[in-house]
User: What shape does this take?
Amino acid sequence: MAQHVTTERPREGVELITMSNPSINNHGSWIGIGQLAAAMKDAREAGARVIVLASGVKGHWFEHAWLQDLADAIEGKPTTGEGVAWYNALHEIGGTHVVSIAAVSATVRAVVPNLAGPAICASRKSRRCLRSPRFRSR
Assistant: This one.
């Protein structure tokens, strides 16, 4: 099985998770998203409080779903992984147990947990959003 996700812990409580699948321009193949979900779960269970998601493919962050997996599933052909991987990844990102930060071409998008659920703060406003008692969705 190809390994599309790598992890490192640059400091205590922070996990850097990088997805690299250049053969399909970092599209979300079921296997890649499954590895991403597993890495996020492992980081959370190991005590990470912040997860930074990054791309290892220049010019591509996490592109949309790799539709070949969906087409193959519909046609009864083998897929790269299990479709439930998307649910697992969304469960990890959408939870309130960690702050997830997406590092996208020098732009940061953060999912900040709060009592009302995750709020998305974009770009330069992220720092203010993290300090502000009022969370805004964009």
